[in-house]
Write a structure and sequence with these properties.
Helices cover 58% and strands 16% of the residues. It has 5 helices and 5 strands. The chain starts with a strand and ends with a helix. The chain has a single domain (2-98), classed as STAS domain (Transcription Regulator spoIIAA, 2-Layer Sandwich). Helix 1 (10-33) runs parallel beside helix 2 (52-66). By secondary structure, it is of the alpha/beta class. The chain has helices at residues 10-33, 52-66, 78-87, 90-93, 95-98; strands at 2-3, 7-8, 38-42, 48-49, 70-74. The strands form 2 sheets. It has a 3-stranded parallel sheet with strand order 1-3-5. A two-stranded parallel sheet has the order 2-4.
Length: 99
């Protein structure tokens, strides 16, 4: 399972995306080779963030979709859930939490 770092803020997102994108693509290949349909990403360590994390997560979801996989984000902090709800993207990121 891939993991988000403890901090994802606007000034860090540009540095974080290339490594996350590369990790997503490598993990996607492994998941597909095992006939999997979901790529798992943990947000458990995430403590300091702003709306930039939403951009990273939406971009990660797009990479997974392009690879034929569904991104499943685990251990989502309540404040991140609320931020996604305020921005109107919660349904895109974790529909399973809303049902």
């Amino acid at each position: 399972m891939l993991k988000l770092p403890a901090s994802v803020r606007l000034d860090e997102a540009g540095r974080l995306w290339p490594a996350l994108n590369q990790s997503l693509r490598a993990e996607s290949a492994q998941v597909r080779s095992a006939a999997g349909t979901e790529l798992h990403l943990s947000a458990a360590e995430l403590q300091h963030f702003d709306s930039a994390v939403l951009t990273l997560l939406i971009s990660a979801g797009r990479v997974c979709a392009a690879e034929g996989l569904h991104l499943r984000v685990h251990e989502v902090p309540p404040k991140l859930q609320e931020l996604a709800r305020v921005y109107g993207v919660a349904e895109l990121l974790w529909p399973e939490l809303l049902s």
